[in-house]
UniProtKB/TrEMBL annotation:
This is Actin-like ATPase domain-containing protein. Residues 80-91 have a biased composition (Gly residues). Residues 1-197 are annotated as: Disordered. It comes from the Eukaryota. Residues 33-57, 104-139, 169-197 have a biased composition (Low complexity). InterPro entries: ATPase_NBD. Gene3D superfamilies: 3.30.420.40.
């Protein structure tokens, strides 16, 4: 890939001006194909794009002498300090009730960097003064707690204000291939997302481009590790309803097990939910595979993830399950609407953990296409990816009067589910007097870990296997004993007695069902409460407490809300209350806490824009060539630019820093000059979870997120290789990274070819 070149003379300065020799460009992406499972099981690339007319672009000659816009109000550009511091289970046993049990429910400053530091930097003749280094200021956040299931986010410095004002220099380095990048402007712009081009429904009727008009029904799907739920509402009568009926269920409940049934000798998908579980309770169980907890395959924080059995890929497992789930919930939901409405009138909100990577979110979007929820040609806004803590926050704010949440109050959402625990602190910014909806902003950088109630089950299984190592249980036997733990022991733990009992099924080679050495008497296994504390509950609960403590070290809050199935656990509530409740901080479990995410996601879809700003979780940047610094940059990275300047290749040019607050609709705009016409412009994007700013894109902590490909419009008379000015806008204030560009007077959507 050809590199762009620019000026930056020291390690603690961010990248600036750039140039590169002309080269070949990445061709435009192929025509979108219908979603299908590839033969090799690899994740297919995203391939949708749209363009809309836009005002004529500026000429380069006028750009060089242009005066940048004035800083937004309140952004004074004060100098800041250098902020470098701180699987499948053959005899499965999924539960049939809420994981974690049911607890009886009880009826500032932005976290970004505060300014920029002007520093004199070298630049080659003809290039404007390089962009100043953007610094962070403020105190160092304490290191996050370690997790036995994977590393958490590292500490970063937080400031006390929004984005710094734009620089007076409109030029900065970028590596986009190919061509000489003549200009870059980092300009925060508070503006609404660009409307999608109007298209057509599957039935051929035209879309208006307005989601509220095109999709009168909002449906949310909370795809969970152990259970999945669905709720929906009609925009004109926004009463939220849940799907409560499922195939072969024993009783009505608004969630269904996230389990799938496959043939044991081939990856043929057979069934899902309760019917899949029922098969594993028959003698035919040994011929089948019950796949569970496959959502955890998308957790990039886990250091060691065992691949799914039978060669099943995570995308395949998720799309198989969602396909059957979606067909059922749409059929049930449509019973509430007239014949003029069908599936094409639904806008979807799909929830994901806040700690998930951009790649994992993209996998969920691909799975939604394969599952038949959306089509590749649908507008991107038909499917909204919603973080689970944000959805839970929308649910809790709807109970704001009940919990006396006032303007400027802050509250911590602890979404403890079956697999993951996610946490974010929100602040109430304002209250809409007409709807009562509170607008919220993220105060802290959300983080979490895989330490949900499914890990209680795993701990329990390990304990039981130790006790029954002399008596191998059948898959049906394991299912029975684990169901007893999940449905009877876990919800009431620790109880009032020093011992708890589990009913054990018939054990081969043990006719009288007695073995006092392991505590088995008359078919009942005795477990002491102290043993359950030490081996099963406390290792997981302690991780949750450490996650909460890390958030509270960053900011104060008036309330802690425990939501999710595990969040409804009486034991977890007692431990959190004992450690964190004070006279000025309440700990509460809202009503129907296990449904907080799915119901809140519907509210999010009905009132989009209620989360007005988010805090970046990681570094985002691009591959740049910048001033070579002797003694700092290795000789093998030295390269010569077109103008004869000595540059360092593979530099990480920062777009967004961890802890930076980004408003909804806010974007970073960068301008380039290229000679790739009519081929697409290739824009690689990198991410890093490092605590320190990465210097090179090939560092171990840096991962390539994908390539944003910017198509060139067809302009009559334009010669191949002609000079083209491209203005790229990257949006980081939404749950998914989005890019668009102004090319030859037309606004085009950048298509991302995701890695992995």
């Amino acid at each position: 890939m050809k590199k762009f070149f620019g000026g930056k003379s020291s390690k603690d300065k961010k990248p600036n001006g750039a140039s590169a020799s002309p080269g070949s460009a990445t061709p435009p992406p192929p025509t979108p194909a219908q979603a299908q499972r590839p033969a090799n099981g690899q994740t297919p690339p995203s391939s949708s794009s749209s363009s809309t007319p836009a005002p004529t672009s500026m000429h380069f000659t006028s750009l060089a002498g242009a005066t940048p816009p004035a800083p937004p109000p309140g952004q004074n550009g004060a100098n800041g300090s250098n902020g470098a511091g701180a699987g499948g289970y053959p005899g499965g046993y999924p539960p049939v009730s809420t994981p974690g049990g049911g607890y009886p429910p009880t009826s500032s400053p932005y976290g970004g960097y505060g300014g920029q530091q002007q520093q004199q930097q070298q630049h080659y003749p003809g290039m404007p003064q390089p962009h100043p280094h953007l610094q962070q200021q403020g105190g160092v956040i304490p290191p996050p707690p370690s997790s036995t299931n994977g590393p958490l986010y590292p500490p970063v410095r937080q400031g006390t204000g929004p984005l710094p004002p734009p620089s007076s220099n409109p030029y900065q380095s970028q590596p986009y291939n190919p061509g000489y990048m003549a200009a870059q402007q980092q300009q925060p712009a508070h503006q609404p997302p660009v409307a999608q081009q109007a298209g057509f429904r599957a039935n051929g009727t035209r879309l208006t481009g307005d989601p509220k008009e095109d999709y009168p029904i909002v449906m949310a799907i909370d795809f969970g590790t152990t259970f999945t739920g669905c709720a929906f509402a009609f925009r004109k009568d926004p009463e939220i309803q849940e799907i409560i009926t499922w195939p072969k269920q024993a009783y009505q409940y608004p969630k269904v097990p996230t389990i799938s049934l496959y043939k044991l000798d081939s990856p043929d998908f057979l069934d899902w939910g309760y019917p899949a579980r029922a098969v594993m309770m028959t003698p035919n169980a040994k011929r089948h595979l019950l796949l569970s907890k496959f959502k955890l395959q998308l957790d990039d924080q886990q250091e060691h993830i065992e691949p799914l059995p039978l060669g099943i890929k995570p995308l395949d497992a998720i799309s198989d399950y969602l396909g059957k789930f979606h067909s059922h919930v749409v059929k049930e939901a449509m019973k509430n609407f007239g014949s003029t409405y069908d599936q094409s009138h639904i806008q979807y909100c799909l929830t994901v953990p806040a700690m998930w990577s951009d790649r994992a979110k993209h996998v969920m979007r691909l799975a939604a296409v394969r599952a038949g929820m959306i089509r590749e040609e649908d507008p991107a806004h038909r499917l909204i990816i919603v973080s689970e803590p944000e959805a839970a926050a929308m649910y809790c704010q709807s109970k704001g009067d009940q919990f006396n949440l006032q303007k400027h109050d802050r509250f911590l959402i602890c979404d403890a589910g079956g697999g993951t625990v996610d946490l974010i602190v929100f602040e109430v910014v304002d209250v809409n007097p007409d709807t009562g909806i509170r607008s919220l902003r993220e105060v802290t950088r959300g983080h979490g870990a895989s330490c949900g109630s499914a890990f209680l089950d795993s701990n329990m299984e390990k304990l039981l296997r130790e006790k029954f190592q002399k008596y191998p249980l059948t898959p049906m036997g394991w299912g029975t004993i684990m169901d007893t733990f999940v449905n009877q022991t876990k919800p009431i733990f620790p109880g009032t007695d020093p011992e708890m009992y589990l009913q054990v099924p018939n054990i081969p080679n043990l006719p009288d069902a007695n073995d006092l050495d392991i505590g088995l008497e008359d078919g009942m296994l005795k477990l002491t409460v102290s043993e359950l504390h030490e081996r099963v509950f406390d290792p997981v609960v302690q991780e949750v407490l450490e996650l909460i403590d890390y958030q509270l070290q960053q900011t104060h809050c008036e309330a802690i809300f425990l939501v999710g199935g595990f969040g409804s656990s009486r034991y977890l509530f007692d431990r959190v209350t004992a450690k964190f409740a004070t006279a000025g901080r309440q700990v509460r479990v809202p009503p129907r806490a296990e449904l907080a995410v799915v119901r809140g996601a519907v509210t999010y879809g009905l009132h989009q824009g209620s989360i007005i700003s988010r805090v970046a979780r990681r570094w985002y940047g691009v591959d740049s060539a910048m001033d070579f610094v002797p003694g700092v940059d290795p000789e093998e990275k030295k390269t010569l630019s077109r103008d004869g300047a000595v540059r360092c290749k593979d530099r990480f040019s920062v777009y967004i820093t961890p802890g930076q607050s980004v408003a909804l609709g806010e974007c970073v705009t960068k301008k380039y000059m290229t000679w790739c016409y009519p081929r697409a412009l290739d824009c690689p994007l990198y991410v890093s979870d490092s605590k320190d700013e990465p210097r090179y894109v090939d560092e171990p902590s840096v991962k390539k997120l994908g390539d944003f490909q910017i198509p060139m419009p067809d302009i009559p008379g334009m010669m191949p290789g002609a000079e083209v000015l491209v203005e790229v806008k990257m949006h980081f204030g939404e749950t998914e990274v989005r890019a668009e560009a102004l090319v030859l007077g037309q606004t085009v959507t950048a298509v991302c070819q995701w890695v992995g």
